[in-house]
Amino acid sequence: MTAKKSKKGPTKGSGGKGRRSLEGKSGTLPASERHWYDGKQRQRAAKRGPGGGQQDGARSERRSDSSDLLVGRNPVVEALRAGMPATRLFLANSLDPDDRVNEAAKMAGARGIDVVEVTKTELDRRCESNGQPGAVHQGLVLQVRPYQYWAPEGLLDAAKDSDTPPLIVALDGVTDPHNLGAIARSAAAFGAHGLVIPERRSAGVNMTAWKTSAGTLARLPVAQATNLTRALEGFKKAGLFVVGLDADGDAQIPDLELATGPLVIVVGSEGKGLSRLVREACDVVASIPIGNAESLNASVAAGVSLYAVSRRRAEAV
Q: Residue 166 pLDDT > 70, yes or no?
């Protein structure tokens, strides 16, 4: 009986096809050069009990869907410098040497933030699932905790306990997070104690607002009000004057005598300005004297007004 011939031909060589996978990833730092490496190992050892498992209360490795991602080397470094609450720092495992990457890893390790090396593909996937498809993360992504808003009453108490007359900025329907971040930056620069935003129909503290604020939102309190009009009435009962900004105001910001006292400045929305109920809650509606321009952007109007109030207060000292 003749043996059946095998149809399988001769085994071919790889021809170099798998050579790259055997060479490893270029740019991956050895453990000795990873400044966060030793600290990370100590953290892992502390979490392990006598049997090698995690102790009770140890942090889970599961990613929270409610967390947000901050991407890019400069934003991540600025966030860590400002002490922004974070849970994990992701590094692409084929990064070129960079001072910002090293600084971010050192700060994260010092604060006990997990430092995790992943592939660029994994970073792309995480950004996409977080609503940031195509984000230019530059191999560096910081997972941050959801922003913890203040209560309006808590913000008021903190402002009254400060060494200067309370100065609070309320945003009436400002929906652009770039404006929120820019207003926060001006508020901090000119001595405001915090912001108040409505719970609905308003921009919240997200990554766009954070990046625009250049880290200010890590230090400046932001309160969220279920009803902004009611919050303003509460401020008035506590002795603060409420001044709304509008092009058709009855007074002008540079001449505002109320500026030296406890004050709330209300900035209207980008398109409609102050809502009817908020406008009625204001003690004064003031305008900014401008030349040929029909109106000012919400963040610009807030910055100009805060500067005018700061100047009046300085002159009164």
A: yes
- Residue 56's alpha-carbon distances to 44, 52, 111, 185, 246, in angstroms, are 14, 12, 21, 41, 56
- Cα 295 to chain centroid distance, Å, stands at 28
Count other Cβ atoms within 10 Å, centred on residue 81.
13
Residue written as token pair 């997990």:
114
| 97-to-32, 33, 54, 102, 316 alpha-carbon distances in Å | 14, 11, 33, 8, 53
Q: CA-to-CA distance for 105 and 120, rounded, in angstroms?
A: 17
In order, the DSSP letters of 209-268 are: HHHHTTTGGGTS-EEEESSHHHHHHHHHHTT-EEEEE-TT-SEEGGG-GGGGSSEEEEEE
Residue 286, strand partner residues: 245, 251
CA distances from 23 to 13, 18, 78 (A): 17, 9, 35
Indicate the pTM of the whole model: 0.70
pLDDT, tens digit, 9 for 90 and up, residues 103-159 = 999 999 999 999 999 888 888 888 877 777 777 788 889 988 888 899 999 999 999
Element (H, E) at 172: strand 167-172
How far is 60 from 82, CA to CA, in rounded Å?
A: 25
What are the DSSP E strand ranges found in 13-97? 68-71, 86-92
245: nearest Cα among 184, 177, 172, 310: 172
Separation between Cα atoms, residue 109 and residue 95, nearest integer Å: 18
Q: Which residues 6+ apart lie within 8 Å of 98 measured at CB?
A: 73
